[in-house]
Specification:
The chain has about 450 residues and is of the alpha/beta class. Helix content is about 30%, strand content about 20%. α6 links the parallel β11 and β12. The longest helix is centred in the last third of the chain and has 20 residues. Bound molecules: zinc ion. The site of zinc ion (ZN) has 3 residues, from loops.
Length: about 450
C-alpha cells in the first residue's frame, strides 16, 4: 500500500484497523521518557517498520537540558494495615507518578496525602502525573478510593530504579530522490494512555510503512522519541541536517472523535502550513487551522527561535481539549477507528503534497505554447478535459519561477493534485522545468 492509496476510504480503514491493533499491543506497557518500557514499545514498532535506534547516555548535555537518569519500575503499591493493596501499580501503571524515586516505608494518612493525586471532578478516573526533574514520588488514584481511605498506618512501596542509563529514540527513514528532507515527530513517553500518545505512534507507523513503498522526492524521517527532551536531543544530534529540512509535522492525539486540527509553524507560511491548509479546507477531511503559540507538544522545540523550522502540528483534540486527557479515561475505548482512518487520510495527503510541491519555470513564456501538437489536449487520467486544460494554462501562466505548485493551486482554485498532474505533463513535454530540485540523493545519513 503506497501513500496515494492511503488517501482512499477502504485503504485508510484497513490501515486504521492495523494501527488500532498496534495500539492495543502497546497499551499495557509502562512507558516514560526513558527506560525499558520505551524499548519494548520500539521493539513492537520495529516489527512493523524498519527502525534505526539511538541510545543517548544519561548526563549528555542538550542545550539548556541534560538527558536524565533512566527510570525503570518493577512494582509499587499502597497497602493498609492488613496488607491489602489499596493502590496497585500492577492494576494500572498510571497509579504511580512517572519517575517516582524508590520508597519503602510506613506512614500515616496525613503524611501520605501530599503524595496523592486524584480528580474530584471525575472521581472514577486515575490522573496521569509526572515528576521527571524533581526527586519525588507519588501515587495517582480514583478520587472515590482516596475519599474512602481511613485514618491509620499505610505501607508505601515504590520499587523503582533511577540510575545512569540511556534515553531511547528511533527513526524510520525513507530515502528520497533529492537531498532535501522532512520530519514527522511523535512522542513515545506516555504509559497506558491511548489517544495521547499511542494514536500518534500507530498513525506514524502506518504512514512510514506506506511511504517506504513509494519513491518520495524528500527523505522522510519518522522520529519516535520522548516529549521535549527527545525532540531536543534529536535536534542536538542533527543540527548539520537542519538546513536541508523543507517541512515537518509533529503528530499525536489522532484517534478521538474531535475534528482534525492543524497548528501552524512559527513562520506560519511554510510549505507544511500551506499543504495542511489545502487538506483541511477541502471537503474530504475538514478541520480547524490555528496559529502558532509557544505552548503544546514538540513543535515548541522545532519552532524555538534558534531553529524556527517549517514544522507544524496535526492532531484532533489538542492538549487538554478533551475531558479524558491525561487520565485513565484516555483508554482504547476513547479511540474511534473511523477517526484514526480520517487522520491517516489527511496526513497521507499532506505528506504527498509536501513531497510533490516544487517551483517550476515556463520554458516557452512568450505567448501560449501550442499544446495540441504536443498531445496535451483531451482528457488525462480521469480529469475532466476542461479542468485539465485550465490547469495547464494556469501552470504555464504562473510558472514564472517565483511560485511553487501550491501557490499555483491556491491562485487558481484548482486542487494541488490537478495542478501537479498538469505540471508533470508539461515537464514531460519540455515546456516546464523544475527549479529547486537539489542534487540527487547520495548519502544523507
Ligand atoms: Zn500528553
Amino acid at each position: 500500500m503506497v501513500l496515494q492509496q492511503l488517501q482512499g476510504g477502504s485503504a485508510s480503514r484497513e490501515a486504521a484497523s492495523a494501527a488500532f491493533e498496534l495500539m492495543r499491543a502497546m497499551y499495557p506497557i509502562c512507558r516514560s521518557i526513558t527506560g525499558d518500557g520505551v524499548r519494548r514499545t520500539l521493539d513492537l514498532l520495529g516489527e512493523r517498520i524498519p527502525l534505526e535506534r539511538t541510545e543517548v547516555p544519561s548526563g549528555t548535555a542538550v542545550y539548556d537540558w541534560e538527558v536524565p537518569r533512566e527510570w525503570n519500575i518493577r512494582d509499587a503499591y499502597i497497602a493498609d494495615e492488613s496488607g491489602r493493596r489499596i493502590v496497585d501499580f500492577r492494576e494500572h501503571n498510571l497509579h504511580v507518578v512517572s519517575y517516582s524515586a524508590p520508597v519503602d516505608r510506613s506512614m500515616t494518612l496525613d503524611e501520605l496525602q501530599p503524595h496523592l493525586h486524584s480528580l474530584p471532578e471525575h472521581p472514577d478516573w486515575i490522573p496521569y502525573r509526572t515528576s521527571y526533574y524533581a526527586d519525588d514520588w507519588g501515587f495517582c488514584l480514583a478520587h472515590r478510593v482516596r475519599e474512602a481511605l481511613a485514618p491509620g498506618s499505610y505501607r508505601v512501596v515504590v520499587d523503582s530504579q533511577l540510575a545512569p542509563g540511556h534515553l531511547s529514540y528511533a527513526e524510520s527513514i525513507v530515502d528520497g530522490a533529492t537531498q532535501d528532507e522532512a520530519i514527522v515527530y511523535t512522542h513515545t513517553c506516555h504509559p497506558s494512555l491511548a489517544n495521547d500518545n499511542l494514536s500518534g505512534i500507530a498513525v506514524a507507523a502506518a504512514l512510514a510503512d506506506a511511504l517506504r513503498r513509494d519513491r518520495p522526492r524528500l527523505t522522510w524521517r519518522f522520529v519516535f522519541g520522548p516529549g521535549t527532551i527527545g525532540s531536543l536531543t534529536w535536534l542536538h544530534r542533527n543540527e548539520a541536517r537542519l538546513s536541508r529540512l523543507r517541512a515537518g509535522l509533529v503528530i499525536g492525539l489522532l484517534g478521538d472523535r474531535g475534528s482534525l486540527s492543524y497548528k501552524r509553524s512559527r513562520r506560519g507560511d511554510t510549505v507544511t502550513d500551506r499543504a495542511a491548509a489545502q487538506v483541511l479546507q477541502s471537503a474530504g477531511t475538514p478541520g480547524v487551522l490555528t496559529d502558532f503559540e509557544p505552548y503544546g507538544y514538540d513543535e515548541r522545540q522545532f519552532c524555538s527561535p534558534g531553529f524556527d523550522l517549517p514544522v507544524g502540528r496535526m492532531t484532533r483534540s489538542a492538549n487538554s481539549h478533551y475531558p479524558e486527557y491525561h487520565s485513565s479515561a484516555d483508554d482504547l475505548s476513547l479511540v474511534a477507528e473511523e477517526a484514526l482512518a480520517e487522520s491517516i487520510r489527511a496526513l497521507a495527503r499532506t505528506i504527498s503534497i509536501v513531497d510533490a510541491n516544487r517551483r517550476v519555470l515556463n520554458l516557452e513564456p512568450r505567448g501560449e505554447p501550442r499544446l495540441g501538437k504536443r498531445g496535451l489536449y483531451g482528457s488525462v487520467g480521469g480529469l475532466a478535459p476542461g479542468e485539465f486544460q485550465h490547469a495547464l494554462l494556469w501552470v504555464l501562466n504562473l510558472a514564472d519561477g517565483s511560485r511553487d505548485l501550491l501557490a499555483i493551486s491556491e491562485r487558481s482554485g484548482l486542487s494541488f493534485e490537478t495542478i501537479d498532474r498538469a505540471a508533470s505533463a508539461l515537464e514531460d513535454a519540455r515546456l516546464l522545468r523544475v527549479l529547486d530540485e537539489t542534487a540527487p540523493h547520495t548519502s544523507t545519513r
